[in-house]
Amino acid sequence: MAKWTAQHEAPEPLEGPVVATVVGGTIIWFVLFLVQLPFYGWFADRGLLWWVWTPAAGAALGLIGIWYARGREAAIARHKEQQAADAAEPGPKV
Tens digit of pLDDT for each residue in 9-57? Predict the structure, then answer.
């Protein structure tokens, strides 16, 4: 079987409001947790406590995601600043 090779270049990845998206998802998970919390006993009686703790885990992981996404955006900004500074510096003349 022959190795597959791309026929064209892959497009650039889409960038969007990554931090805002992660924050929004985290808020949704946390709200789902809060909405289900008053029914804790009902879920416990039926052996369905995972329904309560799944959104709590999603909210906790979302906090990690916010930290990661903010760090990623800061690193991208630092890289762009470094590229701009390197482009502005006159290079060595040969």
Answer: 888 888 889 999 999 999 999 999 999 999 999 999 999 999 999 999 9
Rg, C-alpha atoms of the chain:
23
Joined together, the tokens standing for residue 14 give: 């889409």
Closest CA to 44 of 35, 33, 56, 52: 52
Q: Tell me how crowded residue 92 is: count the other CB atoms within 10 A of its CB.
A: 5
Is-contact 66 19, C-beta < 8 A? yes
DSSP string, 27-45: HHHHHHHHHHGGGHHHHHH
Q: How many CB atoms lie within 10 A of CB 40?
A: 12
